[in-house]
DNA sequence: AAGTCGGGGCG
DNA sequence: CGCCCAGACTT
């Protein structure tokens, strides 16, 4: 048993016990609540998650409550948080637990990891934080911290590298409380060992840090660059009738923004949009091209959304889903369409 | 192993 | 503008 590992785990956990933030999901060991927080926190900052977490637990206080909810309600509670498959997978997994595990989160890492949306990180995080299993929870924070402390220069975007980190963490977990140690590692990454301008002066393990000794802390971790988002032209129709109802449609069940709602939209230009309005909704109205272009960046796409507005008489034959303001609020819309609604409808 | 999947905050 | 964030799933 190495002296380094002993000192590292002790110093880190001691620091965590005095400096940890008071976060909503740290006030309970309920695996359901821990799980919700971990899924929301995937690729998402703490400050962004907190209000969603509070609202979500208010609407779905227990696992059975979530299991019995409709997917539309769940997506509405997730509206604006992004990566919506997280919500669908979580909902599916929770329904599976209600059906096959009597509503109790499995007290077993192998079984828990079989659930939808539970990968290596989330599996380890929930099992260690809620039940103190000796399971690593290696996320971006942990890889940044350990790549610096241990001076690991492999590309952290490769899964082989993540497994390397997991092996190191497994060793440390033998000599400390898993719940505290895993959280301490992430907390250090969030508060001290930040991507830019790390506060090495305040770091409880700076004396043990190889990257600091070498003066290369800010060069780590090594990570391959991501491809640039591709440009896409989107044309979108905001069509209202004389009773101030607007036409909306649901996106496909798979792919980008799956299952969310939007104003009728197509990849392409005005003629493509007109075709869809004619074919899908039997609408042949004159569209007015607006001057505004809404730009929106996704992980791998860059949208330029052109807006076309139109009005129809109420007595015309309506096809599709027409909603007033109150009804509109109950559907889940991607942020870019929320902006469009705000701008053209004030909704 | 590489692509897909959101959104916001920060320098 | 590019980078990063308590990643998982598909192919």
From TrEMBL:
InterPro entries: A/G_AdeGlyc_MutY, DNA_glycosylase, Endonuclease3_FeS-loop_motif, HhH-GPD_domain, HhH_base_excis_C, MIG/MutY, MutY_C, NUDIX_hydrolase-like_dom_sf. The keyword 4Fe-4S applies. Residues 40-191 form the HhH-GPD domain. One of its GO terms (molecular function) is hydrolase activity, acting on glycosyl bonds. Its cofactor is [4Fe-4S] cluster. Binds 1 [4Fe-4S] cluster. It catalyses: Hydrolyzes free adenine bases from 7,8-dihydro-8-oxoguanine:adenine mismatched double-stranded DNA, leaving an apurinic site. The keyword Methyltransferase does not apply. Its EC number is 3.2.2.31. This is Adenine DNA glycosylase. The lineage of its organism: Bacteria, Bacillati, Bacillota, Bacilli, Bacillales.
């Amino acid at each position: 048993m190495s002296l380094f590992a002993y000192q590292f785990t002790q110093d880190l956990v001691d620091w965590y016990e005095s400096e940890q933030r008071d976060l909503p999901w740290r006030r309970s060991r309920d695996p359901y609540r821990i799980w919700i927080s971990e899924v929301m926190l995937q690729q998402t900052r703490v400050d962004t998650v907190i209000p969603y977490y509070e609202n979500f637990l208010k609407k779905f206080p227990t696992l059975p409550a979530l299991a019995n909810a409709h997917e539309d309600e769940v997506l509405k509670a997730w509206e604006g948080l992004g990566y919506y498959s997280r919500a669908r997978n979580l909902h599916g997994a929770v329904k599976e637990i209600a059906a096959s595990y009597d509503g109790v989160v499995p007290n077993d890492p192998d079984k828990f990891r079989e659930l939808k949306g539970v990968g290596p990180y989330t599996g380890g995080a929930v099992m260690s934080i809620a039940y103190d299993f000796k399971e690593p929870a290696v996320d971006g924070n942990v890889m940044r911290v350990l790549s610096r402390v241990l001076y690991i220069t492999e590309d952290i975007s490769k899964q082989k590298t993540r497994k390397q980190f997991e092996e190191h963490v497994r060793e440390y977990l033998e000599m400390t409380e898993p719940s505290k140690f895993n959280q301490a590692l992430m907390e250090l990454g969030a508060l001290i060992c930040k991507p830019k301008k790390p506060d090495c002066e305040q770091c409880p393990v700076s004396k043990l840090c190889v990257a600091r000794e070498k003066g290369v802390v800010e060069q780590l971790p090594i990570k391959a660059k991501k491809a640039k988002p591709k440009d896409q032209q989107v044309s979108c129709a905001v069509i209202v009738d004389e009773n101030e109802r607007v036409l909306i449609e649901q996106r496909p069940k798979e792919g980008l923004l799956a299952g969310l709602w939007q104003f009728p939209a197509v990849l392409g230009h005005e003629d493509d949009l007109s075709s869809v309005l004619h074919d899908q909704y039997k609408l042949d109205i004159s569209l007015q091209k607006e001057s505004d272009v809404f730009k929106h960046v996704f992980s791998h796409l860059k949208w330029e959304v052109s807006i076309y507005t139109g009005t129809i008489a109420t007595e015309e034959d309506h096809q599709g889903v027409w909603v007033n303001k109150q009804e509109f609020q109950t559907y889940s819309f991607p942020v870019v369409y929320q902006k469009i609604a705000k701008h053209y409808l004030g909704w």
